[in-house]
Target: Methyltransferase domain-containing protein
Amino acid sequence: MTEPGWENVEQKIEGIDGWLSDIENHFLYSTAKNCANKGVIVEIGSWKGRSTICLALGSKEGKQVKVYAIDPHTGSPDHQRPGQKIWTFNEFTNNIRAAGAASLVIPVISTAEDAVKNWNLPIEFIFIDANYHDHELTKNLIINWSKHLIRGGTIALNSTNPSMLGILSGKPLHGLPGPKKAVADLIYGSRNFKNIRLAGCITYAQKCDNNTLSERMAGRFTQLKSGFLYSIHGAYLLLTKIPSPIKKFLKKSLASRTNLKS
Ligand SMILES: C[S@@+](CC[C@H](N)C(=O)[O-])C[C@H]1O[C@@H](n2cnc3c(N)ncnc32)[C@H](O)[C@@H]1O
Model:
């Protein structure tokens, strides 16, 4: 089925630097589109605006909920190189304007840690993609920001699950150990989240007062699914590390056993 709104977004983000696949970008778009305007949308980590555009254009088709895009615009440790200064704000602004998303995006040039100190708006949807590897930093983000999430609001964290599509296409985007553990402790292990699901590398959940036993069991099932994907991802990485002479030998002996050409 074609989805004209989404096709338009795909065209607008084409060529903008970023790491998210269609699955994750579409998740952002459709969750923003479904927001009921009971709180704002917050993005932590916007880089050059690719994911921000998905959120804003989804929101534009829905209830026009404002998107607060929080980023110091100086990159994450992964992006920083000695002697090189990163400043993504100008490119971010140009991309947001060109996509026709400027009326809904409020850029906040700050770290998430500083921004939360004076935060006083209810949040309906928060997307966390600051590319933290660190368990404690991710944990603090979840604890401090989810206080502002409304009941029924959605929290989504990137880099917390390996993407099956990534594995199949030979570009295995993966979950990072720190965020993975933070999600295990504070989302899967919490009574305050339900409907825990996966969308590519994203884990997302809805805030609630007290989840039921069946909601907790459904959450644990999602966690098992994620664990299974981690195993496939691990096996994939192992295969890519096998030296080519050994791979050639294995291929040859497999082919001779099955009477196939190697
Ligand atoms: C992986 S990129 C985000 C990509 C973006 N979500 C997208 O898909 O287009 C991570 C971003 O997090 C930002 N960042 C790093 N530390 C941060 C912090 N403490 N608070 C908020 N953002 C941070 C970096 O500047 C960088 O732009």
Summary: Strands lie at 40-44, 67-70, 105-108, 123-128, 149-157, 193-199, 202-207. The first helix runs from residue 4 to 13. The chain has a mean pLDDT of 90. The chain is about 45% helix and 15% strand.
